[in-house]
Amino acid sequence: MYPRLARLESEGLVSHEVVKGKKVYSLTDKGRAELEHRMDELAELEEEITASAQEFAKGVQEDVRQTVRTLREELSEAARTMRDQGRATSKEAWRETTDRQKDEWRRQREYWREQKQAWKEEWRQNWEDAWKTATGTKDDVARLKLERLLRGFVEEVRKSAKHARLGEHDLEAVQDLLDDARERLRDDIFRRDR
Length: 194
Description:
Blueprint: H1 2-10, E1 14-19, E2 22-27, H2 29-37, H3 39-84, H4 87-135, H5 138-161, H6 168-190
Antiparallel strand pairs: 1-2
Helix pairs in contact: 3-4
């Protein structure tokens, strides 16, 4: 962070003053002009972040609904089982259902903990990207766009492969395709730019 702030200060985009022993940075007129010049990029990034958050919220909402539905069905089934069986066996069935529900709630709680962490990481990455887009050089912005493309590519491959049953032969074919793509990128794009 500090090397970037120092570079921005040397470019005249930010300045600092010491307040109560701490450096406080602020945008200069040149920095505001640069930020205004890049507002379209920031607006586009903000739209992406908002869409991502909305998609995540919809997924959370649907998962919660499904979990509640499942628990209702299990409770209803347990109640039917209790009615149908004798009192001694119904207590056992109730205990089993309760244990299953506790396990399901534990799994859901862990799932949401993981989702929360993933969401935090995604937001952190998005804000870092926004900062780089707003304050970075053209090379920084180009690298950032490449990183976004790569993340999108990886996510699409993950989604496609999620339910696929891949054998050894399939994995070898995937490896060959990825190796070929890497070689072509290196030879056709990255070396050409040098």
